[in-house]
Amino acid sequence: MRIWLRFSVLLTLFVPVALLWAQGGSSNLPPQRSPIFGGAGGRSFALSCAPGRVLTGLRARVDAFVFAVGITCRPILPDGALGPESAVGELAGGTSGTPVAVGCPSGHVIAAVEVRAATYLQALSAQCSEWDAARRRFRTRPVQSVTVGAAAANVPQHVTRCEFGSQPMVGLWGRAESLVDAVGFVCDEP
């Protein structure tokens, strides 16, 4: 009886782990929200790709600082490939600065970002990773970076990465007013 009970307990523990492993290491995980990096001012904002879409680019208004920030997203098509990129929502922040937009190459998603900020955001450098359509996950090694803004040498650098390959970045959040004060990112399954 004891052997059967131990076997039942082990089987109960093993089956969910085996299913998780077979699906690429994650399934229906909760969203992963990074801390925000930067100053304490501004009002809260959140920008998110729609369900079934992933973050693939950044929009901004920049000069010496990042005055406003926005996102671009791509849908995940039925075969797992990425569809066409489109801008999502308004920019969060002020109206000064020069408008810029940067995006990952086709077939790539944002899975890590370097944030350069002290009191205000000075630069974001998104690291683009290849999207594996068949497995619906990103490859961990970034292949290219796209950057908005330019940081002075002494500005603190913070890097945030998506923890699970099935959860690329799908949005950002933070605080902004006439400048972007602070920013963080959200990783989730599309």
Question: Can you describe this structure?
Answer:
- The structure is a single chain.
- The chain has 190 residues and is mainly β.
- It has one helix at 2-22, and strands at residues 32-33, 37-38, 43-48, 53-62, 66-75, 86-93, 98-103, 108-117, 121-132, 137-149, 157-161, 169-176, 180-187.
- The protein folds into 2 domains: 1-28, no CATH class; 31-187, Vitelline Membrane Outer Layer Protein I, subunit A (Aligned Prism).
- The protein contains 1 helix and 13 strands; from the N terminus they run αβββββββββββββ.
- The strands form 3 sheets. Strands 1, 2, 3, 12 and 13 form a 5-stranded antiparallel β-sheet that branches. Strands 6-5-4-7 form a 4-stranded antiparallel β-sheet, with no helix packed on it.
- Residues 1-26 have low confidence and may be disordered.
